[in-house]
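Quick log. Single chain, no ligands specified.
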Amino acid sequence: MSTPVTNILLTGVGGQGILLASEILAEACMHAGFDVKKSEIHGMSQRGGSVVSHVRFGTEVFSPVVPEGEGDILFGFELLETYRYLNLLRPGAKVIANDFRIQPPSVLLGQERYPDDLPEKIAARFNDFTLIDGLKIATETGNPRVANTVLLGAVSRHLQIEVSVWQQAVAKMVPAKALELNLRAFQAGRTL
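-> predicted structure:
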């Protein structure tokens, strides 16, 4: 029986752990027996630039890039970046976003204003929208740097992949000294 392709987008700003999260996601999908393709675009990612990663999985996947209007899940690490990539989603897609704002240079220079109403704008376009305070949960878990793993845990609830497979993927992709913390963060996100 063939499994249709699932299209997931991860968006945010460089330094938020988006690429690690996409690696863990792709690894979990491979361990679950799917064909997986992954691509990422990072504009000045080490300096806080926009980052988007595409992960596609199913019985057979031909391209790593999610076609515009076909994304199933958008998993956003920063609100403005989440909003920026909504056009890649299909109607009825899921949006899971971190309630976190990073001021872009144009805002810091006083040329523009960061929109206050982004959660409302996202919710108006997508009924299946969840806003998560990933930084707060990560801090409570033991380290604010694992917010990406908290968010990954929240997204994992929407995919038909066993928890043990996710745990194996996390164990493979994070350093051993950070494994226990990342597994706790993943579980905290999963229980939201």
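Residues 92 and 127 are 7 Å apart (CA to CA).
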